[in-house]
Amino acid sequence: MLEQELINIGINEKEAKIYLATLELGQSTVQQVAQKAAVNRATAYFIIDALMQRGLVSSFYKGKKQYFIAADPERLLEILEQEKESIEKKKENLKKLLPQLQSLNNKNADKPVVKYYEGKEGILATVEEFTKSAKGKVYMAYSVDEVNSVFTPRDRERARARRINNKITTQVIYTYKNGKLENTPDGERRKVPFDKFPISIDIAIYDNKLRIASLKDRLAGIVIEDVEIANSLQAIMKLAWEGAEKYQ
């Protein structure tokens, strides 16, 4: 049990065995530690050296014989705190590097960036990215029936809550075989007949991105980031919105 708990906090299996053996034995030789931990002597020396570098084991001599003793278990907590500080420092350094890394990434800004996602979780990832990053009005088209068949009410409510929280408004063209969506302060909606316009996907155009999710026979999503593509499809969506008025 203790060995597994030590493994869970980042100490490998052999280090855990040696540390626990040394802790239990008190002052002990490498031979005693190796026997207690059920490892060979050469391995015990190697692992003890690694533990000494981390401050978990110390040594001293009596005459010509070397003895080892385990550090107080509170040293484990100190190690975790040091690792936490190290991670925070790396995180801060990475934040400083991000603008430079982004500038390298933008060297091919004239080429569309395409990202592909699979499965329901992949599509939900595209929805989360959209509800976090979109600004202002988003132009959408989707099948309410297909959306409802894939996503739970909780999935849909969470996405809508994030969208409203980020002050995103929508202009939606949709199909719904046996229902109707009402306009809300955050969204305009126009229903079109499914028999004429059998929409089975979910489309969103926002900023300079196009998000498409296939919802019927397979669950997959694609996000295309390109100003020209986004602007052109946004114009097409506006045209479709005007055409949908006659069905209201």
Write the layout of secondary structure elements.
Layout: H1 2-8, H2 13-25, H3 30-37, H4 41-53, E1 57-62, E2 65-70, H5 74-105, E3 113-118, H6 119-133, E4 137-143, H7 144-150, H8 153-165, E5 169-175, E6 187-191, E7 201-206, E8 209-214, E9 220-225, H9 227-244
Parallel strand pairs: 4-5, 5-6
Antiparallel strand pairs: 1-2, 3-9, 4-7, 7-8, 8-9
Descriptive notes:
By secondary structure, this protein is an alpha+beta fold. It has 2 domains: 2-72, Arc Repressor Mutant, subunit A (Orthogonal Bundle); 113-247, Endonuclease, Chain A. Helices cover 51% and strands 22% of the residues. It is built from 9 helices and 9 strands. It has helices spanning 2-8, 13-25, 30-37, 41-53, 74-105, 119-133, 144-150, 153-165, 227-244; strands at residues 57-62, 65-70, 113-118, 137-143, 169-175, 187-191, 201-206, 209-214, 220-225. The protein has a 7-stranded mixed sheet with strand order 3-9-8-7-4-5-6. A hairpin with a 5-residue loop joins strand 8 (209-214) and strand 9. Helix 1 crosses helix 2 (13-25), helix 2 (13-25) crosses helix 3 and helix 6 runs parallel beside helix 8. The termini are far apart.
Please name the CATH topology of the largest domain: Endonuclease, Chain A
- The CATH architecture designation of the largest domain is 2-Layer Sandwich
What is the CATH C-level name of the largest domain? Answer: Alpha Beta
The largest β sheet comes out as: 7 strands, mixed
Shape: elongated
Quaternary organisation of the protein chains: single chain
Strand order of the largest sheet: 3-9-8-7-4-5-6
CATH H-tier superfamily of the largest domain: Endonuclease Chain A
Gyration radius, to the nearest Å? 30 Å
Number of helices: 9
Element order, helices and strands?
Answer: HHHHEEHEHEHHEEEEEH
- Unreliable segments of 5+ consecutive residues: none
| Domain module tally | 2
What's the average pLDDT?
88
Helix content: 40-55%
Q: Count the E strands.
A: 9
Q: Determine the N-to-C terminus distance.
A: 67 Å
Q: What structural class do you assign from the helix and strand content?
A: alpha+beta
